[in-house]
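step 3/5: co-fold with adenosine monophosphate
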Amino acid sequence: MVEIKLTNTRTRTKEVFKPLDPQNLRMYVCGPTVYDRAHLGNARPVVVFDVLYRLLRHVYGPDHVTYVRNFTDVEDKINARATETGREISEITSETIEWFLDDMGALGALPPDHMPRATEYIPQMVAMIADLIAKGHAYEAQGHVLFAVESFTEYGKLSGRSVDDMIAGARVEVAPYKRNPMDFVLWKPSSDDLPGWDSPWGRGRPGWHIECSAMAYELLGDSFDIHGGGNDLMFPHHENEIAQSCCAHPEGGFARVWLHNEMLQVEGKKMSKSLGNFFTVRDLLDQGVPGEVIRFVFLSTHYRKPMDWTEKKAKEANQTLLGFLEAVEGVEAAAPDEQVLLALADDLNTPKAIARLHELKNADDGAKLLASARLMGLFDFVPTTGTMGWGAESEEVSQQLLKLARRYAELRGAREYEQADALREQAQQAGIELQATKQSVGQGALAKRTAGFNASKLAELLE
Ligand code: AMP
Ligand code: ZN
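step 4/5: write tokens
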């Protein structure tokens, strides 16, 4: 079995990865707060941890890996959006979740095995908070419940900060009910116009951090293998998750390996609305940038390094992928290349894996190139809409979708628009959305499976 090495934030070293239970490998990644389209930066952890998920599935078997990524659907930003727009909170969160899955699917990200919504786990959060109070790690004050950081000697270890330094560095105004300025909220009161649930501390809602502790415990148990997220989450979010989970379930120890991706910038600058360089994944897709190009640009930089999104890189990636596509035309995927696998196993060295893809292309080894690219989530169509809980495409369906997309692109390329439109309508009948893209890999079209997908109709269409 291939040895996987990962850089563990907790120990600050690259370690050989040893699963707690190779039959049931468990990974948790913090997901988005759902009130708006994902911006390009939000997609980085999704792609990084998708590569890890695919690698783990390859090495340990797809049935032996459980990947959980949550949706934060109770948060003050969501409440604010509802007030601004006059829309229902549930409408906003459900719509945003659909968008998120659609956009990330376009980047070839497999849906995780579990995608829990915070609001479905309120009783578990309340139980965990009550347990923390009972064990002397939390206290109630003015309708709030706070975690007492001084009760946990390990607080600050993950991010390498001391509580004293944190207090000295804190410039925010401290709420009067806090015993220690670093104590953080587990539960807070809700006014009648805000979402709230009954609890032993009155009607209220959870603080942000408790959801991940409660959902990870419920779905993965008191100890699991890998916890991931962007490095902006290391403090305070992950520090607080550790405090909550290790104090509620000291026997477990929570996550063994902590993995953090670095941030994304755009043309050398921090992405921000005021600089005018802020855009969503959907903006790029709508401009005709294929999801695969976005993914490829992401993978060109190692996850532990800051990555710079540039238009130049996107154009180059498009050219490279067109070359790869030519090389895999008509071939059957073989087993992935050993060197690609070893590069990925070495702390997800995706730039090295890509260098090897170039070698495979130059050696005209289309079968290995296709299998290796697929292992990295390229040329691997992923269902992007529908209900939750679908699996990845079967090899057969994936090939058929590719074929259909090509046929559509060829018709459009030949300016046979009537025939192309007819094909698009037939595809719709089979529950497939055909989309022309301007400068696309796959010769200008994508085929996406939708909720009404019908495999036999797709097969008929291609006869
Ligand atoms: P937020 O929308 O800020 O709650 O972030 C959601 C997720 O996106 C978190 O996992 C963040 O770490 C990640 N994230 C936010 N901004 C960036 C960025 N510029 N680069 C990489 N990841 C980011
Ligand atoms: Zn989290």
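step 5/5: annotate
Residues 383-392, 438-443 have pLDDT under 50 and may be disordered.
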